[in-house]
TrEMBL record:
Segments of this protein annotated with the region Disordered: 1-32, 278-300
Stored InterPro entries: PDDEXK-like_dom_sf, PDDEXK_AddAB-type, Restrct_endonuc-II-like
UniProt source species: Saccharomonospora marina XMU15
Protein known as: RecB family exonuclease
Keyword ATP-binding: yes
Keyword line: ATP-binding, DNA damage, DNA repair, Exonuclease, Helicase, Hydrolase, Nuclease, Nucleotide-binding
Annotated GO biological process: DNA repair
Residues passing through the membrane, by range: none
Domain PD-(D/E)XK endonuclease-like: start-end pairs: 27-273
Length: 300
């Protein structure tokens, strides 16, 4: 898709209106991925809402995503590596104030270790500039909240890192990946997330995105994919089937563990029967909104 001037006239979201001030239950890409990976993990996160201690890599991802969002708020000529790096320290200061529990991750660290961690965030920011020149484009939106209701009544909700819209109307969905997990492990999950956004945008705007672009800042590589309408239609059926399965499990409380390599990244092994643990008593289906994404979900 051509880079350049961007159509800024389209509204950023269209949503089903909340009923009685409550948000309707919706499927997000993170929670749908959780359920696909392991129904019990979905339950722990979306139903029990067990707290999870973020990793330094997740917090760094949030920091880098925030810096890249702010970068596009600068005039084009200022979108250069040193300006982006200058944003890191004040952004970390702000995030530390908003989420003081994150600073506990560094409680035992020396100031040199914290500096090293900030340097590792700076390297991710630098890697972004190896992949594209932000002075050549104006995104229509960054950190865009999107929500749409499928004809089946399933509500889809999520946040898109960046949305580019060409003057010709072509849509590009961009997602930055900063996670520590090996890329091969995360790639299927990342593509699932991108197709999720493609379905939401297709249903919101009537246009199939012409490109889904993943930018891997850990290894400085990008992956671009072009979806088509029949594929998104099939994917829509998949999302509906996942939501049906979630509701079925939600009624009975039957969320089974499903082990995989990804268990290494699961915070809840101590409560998982596959690892000798016992889950807490099923608390029942949460209302109004199971599965809301956290800021950390959005910065993997
Ligand atoms: S440890 Fe693995 S099987 Fe158990 S809840 Fe976590 S992801 Fe599921």
């Amino acid at each position: 898709m051509a880079e350049g001037a961007i159509d800024t006239t389209t509204t950023s979201t269209a949503t089903a209106s909340p009923r009685d001030g409550l948000r309707r239950p919706a499927l997000s890409p993170s929670r749908a991925s959780d359920f696909k990976q392991c129904p019990l993990l979905y339950r722990f996160r979306a139903v029990d809402r067990l707290p999870e201690v973020p990793t330094k890599a997740q917090v760094r991802g949030t920091l880098v995503h925030s810096v890249l969002e702010q970068l596009f708020a600068l005039p084009r000529q200022e979108r250069v590596p040193h300006r982006a790096r200058e944003l890191l320290a004040p952004t970390w200061e702000r995030l530390s104030t908003e989420c003081p529990e994150w600073t506990e991750l560094f409680a035992q660290d020396s100031s040199a270790a914290v500096r090293d961690w900030l340097d590792s965030a700076a390297r991710l920011v630098d890697a972004y500039f190896e992949l594209e020149d932000p002075r050549r484009l104006d995104p229509q939106a960054c950190e865009l909240h999107v929500e749409t209701e499928l004809r089946s009544g399933v509500l889809l909700r999520g946040y898109i890192d960046r949305l580019d819209v060409a003057p010709t109307g072509e849509i590009r969905v961009v997602d930055y990946k900063t996670g520590a997990a090996p890329r091969q492990i995360g790639e299927a999950k990342a593509m699932f997330q991108m197709k999720f956004y493609a379905v939401v945008l297709w249903r919101l705007r009537g246009v199939v995105p012409s490109q889904l672009k993943l930018m891997y800042l850990t290894d400085g590589q990008a992956l671009a994919y072009t979806p088509d309408e029949p594929e998104l239609l099939r994917f829509e059926r998949t999302l509906e089937a996942i939501w049906e399965a979630i509701l079925r499990a939600g009624r009975t409380g039957d969320f089974r563990p499903s082990t995989s390599k990804l268990c290494d990244w699961c915070s809840h092994q101590a409560l998982c029967p596959s690892f000798g643990g016992t889950p807490p008593e099923y608390p029942g289906w949460p209302e109004p909104d199971p599965g809301e994404e956290s800021v950390l979900d959005r910065a993997d």
